[in-house]
Structure formats: structure tokens, C-alpha cells
Here is the input.
Amino acid sequence: MKILVLNGSPKKERSDTLCVTRAFLDGMREAGEQQVHILDAIDQHVEYCTGCFACMHNGGTCIHEDDMRGILEEILDSDLLILSFPLYCYGMPAPLKAIIDRTLPLSSMAMQKVGDRYEHVGQADFSRLRYLMICGCGFPNSRHNFEPAVAQFKLLFPAGHTIMTVPESPMFNAAAAAIVTEPRLQLVRQAGRQYAEKGEIEASLLAEITSPMIPEEQYAAIVNSGV
Ligand SMILES: Cc1cc2nc3c(=O)[nH]c(=O)nc-3n(C[C@H](O)[C@H](O)[C@H](O)COP(=O)(O)O)c2cc1C
Here is the structure.
């Protein structure tokens, strides 16, 4: 399977979230060979979308000549697109958002009603693409935190999406927390294997992965003791 990972963390290799994503990819590799490319959003030369809509009228060519042309080709050539990013102000970090905005050339201006909402009609064939969001965050709570990013991902990719939100994610880069992060990463590897084999992750496994690793109050006390 061809997998493109858009790493939205400005910390690149040192990303807490990427620890989870790497474990997931390891699990996928246990099920079979995978062709993986991890692209750090912060290192890409991607201009902001100017909102001119030229790309939606002219068959898909943006006015900007930058790295986005290659990224779009790679997206269309992939089977799985993974957005791996930390929650920033309840959404995705700006460099990754800039890339997502610039996927506009994949759609035409025409809109169609699908169910009870409108979508743009594609002007490229990305029907085989599936989408996975892996999102870490600094707070211990999932509720009143991940909802905007989750809602955005579902609206962006209404079909074929899987979402993995991981609270308390700075612990993945803390050696002292290995006693709780290692078992959690083991579950993530299991999820990766399941996803590669069946195209989905059991709801109970996903629920376990997305739950806090240590009680919220304990996590907050540890963080506050270092402030
Ligand atoms: C600008 C900024 C905004 C953040 N916003 C949130 C937030 O809304 N909710 C949250 O739980 N954590 C928030 N965090 C914390 C990060 O999500 C957290 O540190 C995460 O572990 C970083 O992951 P990374 O190492 O993959 O970049 C924010 C951090 C930064 C720098």
C-alpha cells in the first residue's frame, strides 16, 4: 500500500504525535509491505491559497508554482493519506492547514448534494484514497478539546475516514512515562495491523487508544509540578 503521511507537527521527528503514527505504521508493516513517505509540512514551500478559484475553473492548475504541485501528485498516487498532527488551538497547525487549503485544485467549482449537504464535484480521481487522522494533544481531556478537528476531518473526507485522537501525548516523549506509553503503543501497533488487514479498527480498541493513559487529575498535577 502506498501511504503518504503529512506530519503537521513543527517539531518534525521529535513530534509526540509521530510516536503514535510510527507505531501504527509498524503495525501495518506486520501485516504486509507498505510504501511509506513521511512529509514534514513545515519544510514544504507551500504558499497560502489566495482564494482566486482559478484552479477550480481551469481543470486544476494553481497560480502558485511551489511544492504543492508535487504534493498533489503524491496524494493522487497514494492509497492512504495520514494526517498526523498535534492539536493546536483545537485545530490543525497552520503549515498543515495551508496544505489542506491548497488541495482545492482537486475539486471543481460545481457543487452537488450528497445526503443532506453539498460537496464540490471532483476534477481528479481520488476515489481509492482512504484517510486517517492521528491527532495528539497536551490536555488530558478528549471531550471539549478534539471536537472541532474531528468535525473538520469528517467534513473534509466524508468517505473512508478513520480517526485516532490521543490525549496526554507529551508523555510519548518522556522516558519516565514508558511504563504507560509502551503498552499504549502496543495497542496502536495492534490497530495498525488490524487496519492493514481489515481496513478498519475495532471500536473497542480505538476507544482504549483514545482514552487517557493516566487519570486526568494525576496528569495535570505532574504537568503543573514542572511549571
Ligand atoms: C500553539 C499551540 C496550541 C495548542 N493547542 C492545544 C489545544 O487546543 N489543546 C490541547 O490539548 N493541546 C494543545 N497544545 C499542546 C500540543 O497539542 C501538545 O504539546 C502536543 O503533545 C504536541 O504534539 P507534537 O509533539 O506532535 O507537536 C497546543 C500547543 C501549541 C504549541
